[in-house]
Design a protein that fits this description.
Zinc Finger, Delta Prime, domain 3, Rossmann fold
Length: 327
């Protein structure tokens, strides 16, 4: 994947490509930004560009070096990620040994990409700092962090800061529809998960479209008989594979109730369930704005209870009963 195909992140790409053109490559880069902003994708593209045999400021994805990196078998590119909850000092020491060993036979640049670098233990961070200050070979470190400010100040000061900003949901939605994803699924996915890759993966799951349809049917029932809604939940959720995704159901409900509120406020451009506007024209006025906000809160509380390992069936049934009390 070339820089041109990376969605957004113009400032990050400008910093990296300027360094490539000027042949001024830092010994360490700190990619800082939220989950889903393309840090790893950009790091891999930058690594390929540094080794690319054809292009000066990008990667061709076709030469031997680019293909080796794509397949994860380039000898001079290492990827480090947390073992369990953190990156440990032994991992940094092993990296140092590996690079030291190779430096005896080659003066070629070596690159390591560290995922979730802000999860290094204190010992690991101090060991990395020494490695940054005294590399055993020409080395480029690419540190990826959701919160770069959580890193040791001494590591920050020795690294080129590369900022990554959240992508706007409309950017991701447009990209997904370009790839053939239905607009109705794309608009929901980008509101539920972070970033292009996660949104794309969610839309590719068959159960997601089914869950969306079930939520709409349950949403209709919330304005009628609670017993009917409970029966529908039992038949269409807990007797199917959708029982594994009840947490996602509550996220969809939250968006559904928010759409009702936005419809009342004449914010049609913000609607997620754009294919349900005829239904919304009837349902949106069955509650006050405060009532829809209350329903949104119930959905958030239900998801929180799910994370606390309360029975999904119990949580959903109590949620459906609770929604009936909205006004």
């Amino acid at each position: 994947m070339s820089f041109q195909r990376i969605l957004g992140q113009q400032q990050a790409k400008k910093i990296l490509q300027h360094g490539l053109r000027a042949n001024k490559i830092s010994h360490a880069y700190l990619f800082s930004g939220p989950v889903g902003t393309g840090k790893l994708q950009t790091a891999m593209t930058f690594a390929k560009a540094l080794f690319c045999e054809r292009l000066e400021d990008d990667c061709c994805d076709e030469c031997l070096s680019c293909r080796k990196i794509n397949h994860g078998n380039h000898a001079d590119v290492q990827i480090i990620e947390p073992e369990g909850q953190s990156i440990k000092i032994d991992q940094i020491r092993e990296l140092q040994r590996e690079f030291s060993y190779r430096s005896a036979s080659s003066d070629a640049r070596k690159i390591y990409i560290m995922k979730q670098a802000d999860k290094m233990t204190v010992q690991a961070a101090n060991s990395l700092l020494k490695f940054l200050e005294e590399p055993t070979s020409p080395t480029v470190a690419i540190l990826l962090a959701d919160n770069g400010q959580a890193m040791l100040p001494t590591i920050i000061s020795r690294s080129q800061w590369v900022p990554f900003t959240p992508l706007h949901s409309s950017q991701i939605c447009d990209k997904l529809t370009e790839e053939g994803v239905s607009l109705t699924l794309a608009r929901a996915a980008v509101q539920i998960v972070n970033g292009l890759d996660a949104s794309r993966e969610l839309c590719q799951q068959n159960w997601f479209a089914e869950l969306r349809n079930v939520m709409i049917q349950l949403g209709k029932e919330t304005g009628g008989s609670v017993s009917s809604a409970l029966v529908m939940a039992q038949q269409n959720v807990f007797k199917t594979e959708l029982a594994e995704h009840v947490d996602m159901l509550f996220r969809l409900f939250h968006l559904w109730f928010r759409d009702m509120l936005n419809y009342q406020l004449n914010r049609q451009d913000s609607l997620v369930f754009i294919d349900q506007q005829e239904l919304m024209s009837k349902m949106a006025w069955t509650r006050t704005a405060e009532g829809w906000v209350s329903c949104m809160q119930l959905a958030l509380e239900a998801e929180k209870r799910m994370r606390a390992n309360v029975s999904p069936q119990l949580v959903l049934e109590q949620f459906l009963v609770g929604v009936q009390g909205g006004t």
